[in-house]
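Continuing from the previous page...

OK, I double-checked the sequence for GntR family transcriptional regulator against my notes and this is the correct one:
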Amino acid sequence: MRTESGGPPHRAGEPVRAGVPEHGRIPRYYAVKTELLELIEELGEGTALPAERELAHRHGVSRVTLRQAVCELVLEGKLLRRQGSRTVVAPPKVLQPLALTSYTEGVREQGIEPGRTVITAETLRADPELAADLRIDTDTDAAVVHLERVLLADGERVGLESTYLPQHRFPRLLEEFAPDGSLYAHLREQRGVVFGEAEERIETVLATPREALLIGTNPSVPMILLHRLSWDSDGKPIERVRSLFRGDRFSFVTRLYR
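Thanks. Re-ran it with the corrected sequence; updated structure tokens here:
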């Protein structure tokens, strides 16, 4: 079925007019992209796409046009490029709740095994902004504990997390905490810390060359950046966290109340 303009039909739940411009002229690559989405549904997760030459012939377009359609689907997380130039149907995105839960808890609820690779575990001096967020007196004790860890989902690198905690509140954290484990579980079970509330800000960015290398992604892939500041039930700061997630592998969800 086609619209009067000759474009793909608009189905309930899709963006208005399924991306068709008001003038009705659809870029050829976008039409191919729509047709590839139907093929992706038929093939299923992990299945390789037919060869580029075959797909270009099947859709009656140049290989340049086909590559543009495939590239957008890769950026959107519908397709994955594998070693050896294979392009396969991507698995569903990891759905992470925007809630006062840890990465470990959110991922494990979906039947995915979380993991972390430790990049940095150190104590350093807080800059004025960080000291203010964590209510650290820079005249007496400006030290913070810094943990930088690559986030894993079923062994796949999906993000990079940098956490800062006031060292005066958690003086022996680096000696007592296994940094490849769940920090929230350690704080809750070993230190009796009760998270009371948090402020979270979300934006989209591109990874720096270092971040892309650590996460193992293409620097052109959009990333989701989360900034979180957490307090305990008494209103005392616990942590400031900067979490960077692959936009092609993660989606975030929350429930809103009036």
